[in-house]
Structure formats: C-alpha cells, structure tokens
Prior knowledge:
cell outer membrane; transmembrane; mainly beta; transmembrane beta strand
Amino acid sequence: MRVVVFIVIFFISIPYLGLGQTDTVRVLDEVEVISSPWEQFVPSHKKYTADSVIKSLVPYQNLASRLNYIAPVNIRSYGVTGLTTISQRGFGGGRTKILWHGIDLQSLSNGSLDIGQIPAFFFDNMTLYSGGQSAVAGSAAIGGILNLEPLDAKTRGDNQSQLFLRAASFGSLTAGGKTELSKGKHSGDIKIFYQKSDNDYPFINTYKSGAPKERLAHANRESGSVSADYSFQLSDKIKLSSSYWGLFSDSQLPPLASKTSGSQEEQNDRYHRGAVNFSVKDQQYDLRFTSGVDLQKILYLNNATDLESETTSFRWQNNLLYTYYLDNWTFNFTGKANREEVTFNNEGYPRIKERLTGELSGFIRYEPKAGTIFTAGINQSMAEDISIPTTPSLSVSHQLGSVLTVHGEFSRVFRIPTFNDLYWQGAGAKGNPDLRPESGYNGGIGINFKTSPAKYFNSSLSLDLYSTTLNDQIVWAPDSEGDWTPMNLQKVWSRGIELESVSSIRYGESEFLLRLNYQMTRASLMKDNTISDEYTGTENQLFYTPEHIFGANLSVKYRRWLLAIFNQFTGDQYTTLDNNERWKLEGWFLSDVNLAYIFSVGKNKISVSGEVKNIFDTEYEVRRERIMPGRNYGISINLLLNH
Length: 643
C-alpha cells in the first residue's frame, strides 16, 4: 500500500510545478489526435500513443516492445520467439481487441495475435485504449482495444521516405523502409520490414543443479512484412482507399530451461490482409463502408516426433458506419456482417468449420455545452448457434474550469468462444460446442488535469479507477473421460488504478519530455467450479498478473543530440492459484538508453544512434523457465528524406 501512496503523490505533484506559467507553450512534437468510433462515443476511456521521440529513435521495435514503452500494460511472452500477447487490466491477450481498418485481427482459432511479430514501424499512429468497450467494438473488447491504423488518419500533404538499418547483439539485423507519396487527388505509401535474430544469448540456468551458465539454443527468428496503401479523393466529399498487409515469421521454439535435451519445435506463420474503404464526409453526416479479408496460416512442427499441425483461418468482414450530426447531438449506426472459416489439419486430414457473425449497434452523443459530453449506446452481436447478450454502454465527461475534466462510464462486456474452444479435436483434447459467451460488467471514473498553457512548461495528469467482472470465463480442464476440454468455469473480478503524467520543459536550446505511467491491478478468481474455495476470493492474485507496473521515460534534446532513457518496473508474478511464494517470479526493473546525433543534409534528416538495452543486466522471466536476454547493444542509422 505504501508503494501505491508514494506513486500517487509523486504523479499528482508534477503538474502543479507549472501552474504559475501563463505564456504561450512550445513543447516537443505532439502526437496527432485521431478520431475513432470508440473514442467519439466512449470519450472517458484512457488512451496511450507514442510520442515523436519513440517513433524516431526506435522504428525497429515490434508492437510488444513499443507498448512497453508507452503504456503500463503486462506483455505476456513465452520467450523471445514464443507467443507474445497483451494483458490489460488483468485480462489475457484474447480479451484485448486488435483492429486494423476496423477489421478484427485476433486468430479465429485461438483468439490471440502474436504482437512480437508485428513491426511497430508500420503503425506509428497506433493507439491503445484501456477499458471494456464491447458496446462499440464487439466481442473480446474487455481489457481494451489496440487500434493499429485509425480509419480517420490524415493523408500527408508532402512526399517523404524513410530508411533505417540496425545491427545488434545476438546476431540481430533489422532493416526497413517506407515511402509516402501524394499528388493531387492521389496518395499512398509502401512499407517494407525485415528482421533476423539468432537469439543465442547467455544466461544463468537456475533450473539446473549448480546453476550453470548456458547459451540459449534453437531460438532463431526470421520475419518480414510489406504493406501498401492507396487513396483517391474522388471529390471534396467522397474518398476511396485500399490497403494490403502481408507478413511471414519463421520461429524456432527453444526448450524450457529445465530440459536436458534440445528442442526441435518450430512455428511458421503467414498472414495476408486486405481492405477497401468507401467514405463520404459531409457537414451533416459521415458514411463509411469497409470490406476486408484476413487470411492466417499457422504451421507447428516438432521434428523430434514428426508432429505437424496446420491451422488456416479466413475471415471476410464488412462494416457500415453512418454518423449524423444535428446541433449538439451526434447519432451513429453501425452494422457488421462477417463470414468466418477455420480449417484444422492436425490429424492427417482437414476439418473445416465455418460460421456467420454480425453486429448491430447504435450510439448517441450529446454535448449540451462546451466541455460536457454524454454518450449512450447499445450493441447486439450475433453468431450462429451462440446466444450473445445485449450490450449497453453509458458515459459522461465534464470539464470543471479550464484545467480539470472528470469522467465516468458503465458498460457490459462479452467474448464469444473461439473455434478451438468449440471444435478442436486431437492430442487428448476436444472442443465444447455448448459453451456460453463470457459476459460481465465494466465501470470506471477518472480525472484529467492539464496546466494552463505556459512558455517553458506544460504538464498533464490523468487518474482512472476501474472495476470489471467477468462471468463464465472459459477455461480448459479435464472432463469425466480425462480429455482436456473448455468449460465455463470461472468468475474473475479485476479492479485497480491507472495513472499517467506527461511533462515538457523548454529552456534555451534544450527540450525535456518526461512521461510517467503506473497501473495497479488486483485481479481475483472469485469462483471456479473445479477447485477448492481456498484458491478463490479477493486475497489471491491471478497467476501471471503483476499487481504493479510502473514506467518512466525521459528524453532530452540539445541542439543535434537526443538522449532517451526508457524505464519499466514489473512487479512480482505468482504462477500458482494459491500464490505460493516458492514458485513466484520476482519482479524486475529494465532500463534502456538511446543516444542519437541528428543532422540535416538539405531538407533531409539523418540520425545515427547507439543503444544499450537492459543496462543493469537484470535476470528476469516473463514466463517460468523462459529466461529473457540480459544486457545487449545496438547501433542504427535512420534517414528521413523529403522529396
């Protein structure tokens, strides 16, 4: 509790340092604010975006690393090449919605998306929203939403290209490039990314007698992505656009630290995604239609046992959004129709399962005066052979004076079973076609505080309190015949606080930017039909859910030099339901330092940077027996060309 009190006081004190300043403000580059349906109709949700320092210094990052830098989220990872997902507010990766042009990206088979494979470089405008938003975004939006490319992103008015190359420890090589072109009514971009790493780092193996020093083996990953976007402004009101995004990732899966023999497991992923958009923008209304496809193929191989399992999923999604503006009122109607299909090929022959899904939702936004917003909405999702609850949402945001805003929300959340949950067969496991959707309630209140504009100093603070309950949570457990099968077994209650403070100072030729964030999460298993009551209740914390996450980023710009320090503390994680201290994973503190020299050649910019990651050589595990890398180094060159 003392930790919480100290951090709260520390955050709250920062904005008051600038209250005495009243002149015009000039700060480091701001992130462009982009509107979206879930931001427009649930304005009380907390959102996180990357600032210009992060985007310019570390374009080589994957989404998992980028999110660690900008938000207090728990990134769950099965090692450097294993599945990596987001855990928001105590809920696992299958309960954060991930969208691209409004298209769902989570796997139809297992409900997850490996964000360790995805280059953040492609999605500099990505936004992470915290809180349950099923009323706006549908199934799985329980912990929050990761929006990779907002539909309303502006078209650049100039032509620009970027190239970067990075070499780093453990045989890591990263290269990428993009070009953005605009002429008249036409605009578009092409992005390419490639990364290869041996991941053969040394570590102390405490899971073996004598704690020998070993080197990680069979942990190579090679991945690449390409994307292309094109838009045509047919008239002042009408716009057509299309997008493509492809990805491959070939990963070796290293053994657990306690294993004496090497692993021969591999996973190969192939994704193809495309979308076309038609939009009409008028003073009185907005109309947008999006049709997109998502094809995913995941191949798992175990050469030691000649096991081969391939899962292919195909999803065709169609979204229609209509928004009407009338004085202080905004009305929104959304309709969605999807076709989903999964082909399982894990028993020597293919099995095809398919279903139709859809959504109907409506929202009202009312602004009686400047600074006051009321919203209300309702969502009814549909899926073949699944009864889904009606999902309402209410929120209010009110500005008190010139610096303080208060807000609150209440909504229902839900998640429908995945294809694996319903239809899996093989390897001693089977799906359960009688599963009910997970369903619960989300609520929260918060404040946003911003100092008055100042010449040398500007600061903001947000504080949010939240609570989410989730009933009928799906868990895989042995049935009466000894086969593993999913069941609606659990009730989970998650509650806590989120804090963020951003402060900027300019003095002479120096600019400083300090970003602090913190999340305290108490996630409790309140009910489980298969275990004793001693493992449930508010006293215990869910396993692999840290109670405390704290981040602190400091950047200093002086003339042509830029220094950035990224810090994150992740608290202890229990690995058993009874919170046994013996099997607890100790918390860890990571610190990365990046120093760059930036200079101009004509109207172009070149930066050369060096970095040290995990500078204190911290030994840590995100998952038991998945030991992560210690101190490592990198050097990169980044070219920004204007043409």
